[in-house]
Amino acid sequence: MVEQRTQVKGRAVRGRSAVASSLLSDLLSVPPKVRKRVMAQLDEQDLAVLLAASHAELGTAYALWQGDPVGFVEEVLGDAVWSGQKRLLRSLTTHQQTAVPSAFGTGKTKSASLAAAYWACVYPPGTAVVVTIAPRWRQVLRQVWPEIRRGVTRAGLPGRVDQAQWTLADSQGLEHVVAYGIAAAPNSEDAVQGIHSPNLLLVVDEGGGIAPKIGRNMAGLMTGSNSRMLVIGNPPTDDEGSWFEKLCLADRVNMIRLSAYSTPAFTGERTPLCRSCPPAVPPHLLSTHLVDREWVANAIADHGPDSRYVEAKVHARFPKGGPNTLIPSMWVETAYGCDEPDDPAAVPLNALGLAEERREWLVRPRAWVRLGVDVAADGGDEVVVSRCVGDLLTIEHASAGAANANAVDVAGRVLTHIHRAQQLADRLGTAAPVRVKVDVIGVGWAVYSQLERWGEEGKHRAEIVKVDVREGVRRSYDAATLRPAKKRDELWLAMRSLLVPRADGESMLRLRVDDRAIAQLSAPRYSTNNAGETVVESKDKMRARGIRSPDRAEAMCLSVYEPAVQRSRIVA
């Protein structure tokens, strides 16, 4: 019947609301595939009349895409999706709960925004609501909602979208909230209570960070005749038995695993052109925004093929057991993602009038400026200079190659960063001298000696501190703490203590470093010797299991580490 009616397309539909209304009724009675085929035969004017009839009779012009989220994304939003995204979008029409453990770079946040836009549009305003949920408010503001705003603007969808709320007017002109975002911190049990709608969609981003109590409360909302929940996220690396893991294993849940190896870079899937980037960006395939082979190879080289990180971020599996990781990657990610300080006295680095400081990261007046220098042993690995300004930790230099075998050349590069650090300290009004900790193993001893000599000659004002990581520990530690065996263990444990999340879930450090540095911080394992002391995995052992030397991480550890002061004994 519908197929026959399309023969009147053109003149029959145009200007004849009765025909459009009848066609609308017929289209809603057939499967989305048939509906899609019929609508494809209509020209722009005919389609406009049909959509106007839908808006007048059903309260939304987009009711024709109910049950067809992929069609809505492609035809209404004009966006492109790959096969993994299509699977999770279609699951909304067949399953009440969908869980998507995902590798890095599969487009999971974009998928969440597309699902939200679909649900908010295909039901009349006032009859449906989308609630996006993430563990932290900054995740709500920075991840899903920027994507929703871009999609609404690009497609010219109706309504008003602000930072985390979308409102649409009904046929009477009354505005309704059709989508909004909330944070569901572990201690906010009431965050997801009191949410009701005839057509309810919960979109949970960063599902691995959702606490069990919050998860149970969300499950309690799945009581309506048309309620859905989509949970997307990386499997947590350090929380075995998490709520997200249990959800994925539940019989009632449709689990769709998106590993890195299921993406176009590995399957050879030909993706359409990206339709999300601004017009000024040259045409490119959607796959350029997804994880690639180089990232996967680097992740395995930095963490090891059997690491919990690779298990979660590459294979999209929930890690089980395994060896002890000294610094959980979740702690590192928290420090990497933490906000800039809410301190009116703090100033951006690029507002200090220093040509080399181009970043907008905030620093506080009188903040202590320290450097950590990891010198490549015998010219191998990397020479790395890390800088700590108060709580802001960065990598200022990293280089590898034969040039690093010459100690004077290496010392010269370090001297450049000492001068920069001194200028920064002066602008901040810092009274404490710039303190430079140098690993003196191998070539490092000659670099340290050269920097000391230049200080005596007046070429810098910094305090140069040698750190021999092979030495014993001069501090005494409480029996309840992790007690280091050697100085290298001590400096790693010092970093660990600074990355332990505070009571509010935030970090004491702001990590503004690259992916390799982030990876290296959570790469080493630890063990306990016969004396009950903590021993951090050596670089040689890490190389033996296929992991790069953690030079960037050790430079960061050196920058925040303060060796015990060695005092002379007083003889009576």
Give the SSE map:
Blueprint: H1 2-5, H2 9-13, H3 17-28, H4 32-40, H5 44-58, H6 69-76, H7 83-94, E1 97-101, H8 108-122, E2 128-134, H9 137-155, E3 160-161, E4 165-169, E5 175-183, E6 199-204, H10 212-219, E7 226-233, H11 243-249, E8 253-255, H12 264-267, H13 293-303, H14 308-313, H15 329-337, E9 347-348, E10 362-363, E11 369-374, E12 382-389, E13 392-400, H16 407-428, E14 435-439, H17 443-456, E15 463-467, H18 487-499, E16 510-512, H19 515-521, E17 526-528, E18 534-536, H20 539-544, H21 551-560
Parallel strand pairs: 1-7, 1-8, 2-5, 2-6, 6-7, 11-14, 13-16, 14-15
Antiparallel strand pairs: 3-4, 4-5, 9-10, 11-12, 12-13, 17-18
Helix pairs in contact: 3-5, 7-8, 8-9, 16-17, 18-21, 19-21
At a glance:
The chain is of the alpha/beta class and 572 residues long.
What does the model show?
The chain has helices at 2-5, 9-13, 17-28, 32-40, 44-58, 69-76, 83-94, 108-122, 137-155, 212-219, 243-249, 264-267, 293-303, 308-313, 329-337, 407-428, 443-456, 487-499, 515-521, 539-544, 551-560; strands at 97-101, 128-134, 160-161, 165-169, 175-183, 199-204, 226-233, 253-255, 347-348, 362-363, 369-374, 382-389, 392-400, 435-439, 463-467, 510-512, 526-528, 534-536. It has 572 residues and is α/β, with parallel strands linked by helices. It folds into 2 domains: 59-289, P-loop containing nucleotide triphosphate hydrolases (Rossmann fold, 3-Layer(aba) Sandwich), CATH 3.40.50; 329-560, Nucleotidyltransferase, domain 5. The strands form 4 sheets. The chain has an 8-stranded mixed beta sheet with strand order 3-4-5-2-6-7-1-8, sandwiched between helices. α10 links the parallel β6 (199-204) and β7 (226-233).
